[in-house]
Amino acid sequence: MSINPIVLSIPIYFTLIGVELLVERLQHTERYRFHDAITNISCGMTSQITGVLLKVGVIGMYELLYTHFALFHIPQTWVWGIVLFILADLCYYFAHRYSHEINFFWGGHVVHHQSEDYNLSVALRQSSLQGFFTFLFYLPLAVLGFETEFFVYVSALVTLYQFWIHTEFIGKLGPLEWVFNTPSHHRVHHGRNPKYIDKNYAGTFIVWDRMFGTFQQEEETPVYGITTPARSWNPLWVNFNHYFQMREQLRETPGFWNKVRVMFGRPGWRPAALGGPYQIPEVDAATVQKYTTSAPRTVNFYVLLQYVVLLGVAAVFMFTQKDMEPAVRYSVAAWCMWTAVACGALFEAKRTGYLLEPVRVVVSLALLLFALRSSALFMSAAAVGTAWLAVSLLWAYSFRKVFASTAATTAASHAYA
């Protein structure tokens, strides 16, 4: 298997998001917000890019254990595939559960819960850091004797299953609710109502939550998000925000063992001297205020067009990065990250975002010429470059008007980090 099934499924993801968005518009239900959906997709894109770059180390450790410590050598048959799927889903349950119950791990998972909406784009909102921790929970499968490529493929299917459950358009599904994770069960998991916190960790089979005492039925409509919102459209910041908060908490927490517990205890833990654990606040869907900013319409239109180009570059990267020279590979990856961050800065009307955008235009053109050195990328790079130049010309035309409106917009959103 040369391509991750998750990468191959990306066109299907976007098609289904488009269908859900169309239904939302026809029903006037307002389940999508432009800035939030773009940030969700940005987080997913940056997660896939960093995953490609870090995959060698993670998969290498699994392969090392399989090669030298496997108790058996299990054949790749459909029967054993089902067994592996069930075991991988069980491993996912515990990886997911401890990503909520250990504060340091929560910092790598919190990104997925930050959106205050609930739609299919939220499924793409993944952390760039979580893989550092969760892969440890799957290593017993290597020791059991499931071959590396077999494991990568089947565990990807566990992930693929979870895409469709991120929707509010599907209600309860009767008897299926007893066995499988469903949209209803997963809506509970994304709720920040006190009764919903740390419930329904399942990937595919909700039976794990029923067995281990973490199941909660969906009752009132959940309020989505986290108890301490990130309040940012910056995909880089939202990945590290929790660790900056943890650093501040460690500074004010006395005693070595208290600091250890801050890092590896439950999120929100504090020693009694500082008031004890933080209490989970009650929330009301009717009164909760979601994070929002109001960028000028010209900026939104520019970012949308720019984002289409970004997704094109990211797609080329995901499917051809193995054939790229190392310098090109890392340069394109860095450009994708920079562009995603730049889009967030423009949404938030950050002055630095407007000032650095012309710099990014120049760097982008230089990178395009650099990438054209590889003949395998010529057609893709030329197509993407042509589209990018058209978008850049649009920006050059509207830059003065947009920059003039920055002061008023910044005044309205200066409190947002």
From TrEMBL:
Q: What are the entry keywords?
A: Lipid metabolism, Membrane, Oxidoreductase, Transmembrane, Transmembrane helix
Q: Which Pfam families match?
A: FA_hydroxylase
Bilayer topology reads: Multi-pass membrane protein
Q: Where are the transmembrane segments?
A: 6-23, 78-95, 299-321, 327-347, 354-372, 378-397
Q: Where in the cell is it found?
A: Endomembrane system
Ranges where the Fatty acid hydroxylase domain occurs: 82-214
Protein's name in the database: Sterol desaturase family protein
Q: Which organism is it from?
A: Hymenobacter cellulosivorans
